[in-house]
Amino acid sequence: MPPVLSIFERETHETIVGSKLFQRGERIAIGASGGKDSTVLASILKTLNERHDYGLDLCLLSIDEGIKGYRDDSLETVKRNAVQYDMPLEIVGYDELYGWTMDQVVAQIGKKGNCTYCGVFRRQALDRGAAKLGIKHVVTGHNADDIAETVMMNLLRGDLPRLARATSIVTSSAASDIKRSKPLKYAYEKEIVLYAYHKKLDYFSTECIYSPEAFRGSARALIKDLEKIRPSSILDIVKSGEDMAALVPPELSTAVACSGDNEEAATGCGSTNGRSSGGEMAVLEKRLAVEEAAQYRETEIVLPANGNSLVQETLQVKGGSSIHDKKKPARKKVVKQVMGRCDKCGYLSSQSICKACMLLDGLNKARPTTEITVSAEEEEGSTTLMRHVAALEISAS
Ligand SMILES: Nc1ncnc2c1ncn2[C@@H]1O[C@H](COP(=O)(O)OP(=O)(O)OP(=O)(O)O)[C@@H](O)[C@H]1O
């Protein structure tokens, strides 16, 4: 076996053991997209489970987002993987869960912002798929590159709670009783590709046909540039993310989880997306330059406030608003989240309407603009988990 394989396997084993990721006898659903990361994850977990006798019961869980020419092809890969790794496979589709495929969502809303829908739907779909299997732990193939990008994006957004969630190897939230973990958190994408290559793994390498998420692409490009001058940048960013996460009060990072958002949902589907160079970074840089220039036109004035105390306020001498006026909205008050059920679909949620249902409401309201026919049998016999979403068929026209 080439040393690169054994080193990779040993390091992944160390991550698993060091983080006490699994318990003996645990049933684990591997989020399997057919891509390189989750294929390598399935392969290596099978190897390590047998070699080190973890005692895990592994299965593959795939979400069919309903993207023709992309997900249907990658699911064929997952079906082959199920045979190759001798693991049961469960496939859950957006159409059965939500009454919408991503192809239909994109036809309705366009490509812009479609990753947000997909991310929110996928998170819930993975939970629902795991619940269907009676499994409480889902592992995903997120790697160090993905996490470094997410850290960078949340740093630029000033969103430390979400940054904290992205860096933790295990995430669980009050809004779901299903745990998530990322055993490849410290694995470079390059190592994963090499492992797949040397082990001749069968994976699907086409990227999603819908628009990439520009901001992630920009963060990725920035990290790639940093790597040229500092090769350890990716793991350094992951490490810095972990250190920053330690400063975030737990109730704040939990509140992010409870809001129904997650790193994937907030940033689109994740790592493969947005790998094109985005213009957002250029816009950001331009804005920063303008703001920097504006600083020189500012004068510090101390004003008396509330009679006694002195409050420093910055006023701008010439027109326009001061950069200090562009205060970020005050951090949201942290409300203790209580797990309940979504009024519409009954899914676990800390809100009265879960995020997926909110998005579906918007989609369904706009749907009558398209010519629609409802199939009576389908509506009557629907086993759709979300009963409020009628099984609609868009007529061929
Ligand atoms: N359709 C899906 N079904 C099941 N799991 C998924 C699906 N899409 C993504 N995942 C899980 O989320 C992880 C991150 O997904 P992402 O879209 O960022 O793709 P990626 O980093 O290219 O991973 P991969 O190479 O496995 O596709 C995947 O490794 C996989 O575990």
UniProtKB/TrEMBL annotation:
One GO cellular component term: cytosolic tRNA wobble base thiouridylase complex
Manganese as UniProt keyword: no
Gene3D superfamilies: HUPs (3.40.50.620)
UniProt cross-references to InterPro entries, sorted A to Z: CTU1-like_ATP-bd, CTU1_C, Rossmann-like_a/b/a_fold, TilS/TtcA_N, tRNA_thiolation_TtcA_Ctu1
GO biological process: tRNA wobble position uridine thiolation
Residues annotated as binding ATP: G31, A32, S33, D37, I63, G141, D146
Source organism superkingdom: Eukaryota
Record keywords: ATP-binding, Nucleotide-binding, Transferase
UniProt-recorded Gene Ontology molecular function terms: ATP binding; transferase activity; tRNA binding
Domain tRNA(Ile)-lysidine/2-thiocytidine synthase N-terminal: start-end pairs: 28-207
Protein name (Swiss-Prot/TrEMBL): Cytosolic thiouridylase subunit Ctu1
Domain Cytoplasmic tRNA 2-thiolation protein 1 C-terminal: from-to ranges: 340-370
